[in-house]
Amino acid sequence: MTNPETWRLSATELTQLTRTGDLSAEGAVQASIDRMNAVNPALNAVVEDLSAEALDRARALDIARAGGAVPGPLHGVPVTIKINVDQKGHATSNGVPALKDLIAPADAPVVENLQKAGAVVIGRTNTPEFSFRADTDNPLHGRTHNPWGRHISPGGSSGGAGAAVMAGIGALAHGNDIGGSLRFPAAANGAVTVKPGLGRVPAWNPSQSAERGLLAQLMSVQGLIARSAEDLHLSMPSLIAADPRDPFHVPVPWRGEALNDPVKVAFTKNTHGYELHPEVEAALDFAREALTGAGYLVEEAEPPNVFEAGRTGYRALMGEIHALMKGDVDAAGSQPVRDIFAVYFQEFPPFTGDELLQMMAKRTHYARQWSLFMEEYPLVLSPFLPQPFFKPDRDTEGAEGVHEVLGCAVYSYAMNFLGLPAASVPARLAQLPNGPQPINVQIAARRWREDLAVDACAAIEARAGRMCLPLWHQMQAGGRS
């Protein structure tokens, strides 16, 4: 009989039981399905319920294990997949009604890698239209709500993923990130994630009819959102397994060589003119103290101009989006998303023509500056957003709204333009007028050293605690509104 509390277990805790046979894969999956049935109606995080096929797969895993098969590293771990990535037999709608019948002919590499490791997909999670907002709502599936309360956006574009995993719907949630779409939901929901660097995780959608633009290829990555840093260490080695369908994937091991102690961390509160909220400053100070206490050498040091790199990168991306994607948005997008894109083009004036080519070339200049800086400082601790997370639909409120949501998030999209790993971890539970709200900080790392960023997340988490615990208490007490 399934323990009703099994859904609370982390992926690491689950696999310690499922791999030994102390807990069946079916039991682990059933517990998460029961949790999904209990809380998802209020959240709308999972928009396609895959319970039936998930239980069939879990039973098959149990039979194989009983027959002597060696269980995978994620044996029986319930996971969710974002609806903008191909899963065979299911629609890759990307939140767009016109794509609701775009049925994937095969699994994307991330789905295949997770399943090869023994994970079981229990549902597909919501995203905004075209996966291009830092909030999650669309006319096909509706709005996703943050389990901390409806006064906080769930983030985007992997908002369904972040809300699901922190509410206990699956132990791991797949997401992706072109300008912050893993880290925004992590920050909104108090989860932990690492945006992998360029080439780290194989990516491709078999349903796509054309290749993406070059900057989209260079800035977009696949990843996971989790409730704990140790779950990233458990799961990311499976996610990064090579796939020949991504010819630019780099088969680098998850764990790199040990660095000389102490590991140096550059610490900055520089928000480049944006006001730093006291709660964000307190979270940064806490993270610094946690890393220092864990043996890191944390020094105030200013990295190369993140504002210039970030704004240049996003204006270049907007140039590509305007040329290659605006027509699709105009033809298939809702009026709200068309309005948001119009303001995006105001906030980030698109580079065009020769200037776009020059700014794309300048990407190497910025990346080289950061590479040299990180010879001395392998990690950079910084704000993610300068203020606590914003309310739902803030980006529909014109230029001021888009500026608060995305304009000030230079530490986010700069890392995409540079192709560097960047993790997000909660360092404080702020008591704000509308209720408790997690505050995440960002940790950027040297190229190919996602493991270092996750190690630092674990050190901060060890002192701050896991944000799922106060959240679950609040949800059980009826604290959602």
UniProtKB/TrEMBL annotation:
<dbReference type="InterPro" id="IPR023631">
    <property type="entry name" value="Amidase_dom"/>
</dbReference>
<dbReference type="InterPro" id="IPR036928">
    <property type="entry name" value="AS_sf"/>
</dbReference>
<keyword id="KW-0378">Hydrolase</keyword>
<dbReference type="Pfam" id="PF01425">
    <property type="entry name" value="Amidase"/>
</dbReference>
<protein>
    <submittedName>
        <fullName>Amidase</fullName>
    </submittedName>
</protein>
<feature type="domain" description="Amidase">
    <location>
        <begin position="28"/>
        <end position="451"/>
    </location>
</feature>
<dbReference type="GO" id="GO:0016787">
    <property type="term" value="F:hydrolase activity"/>
</dbReference>
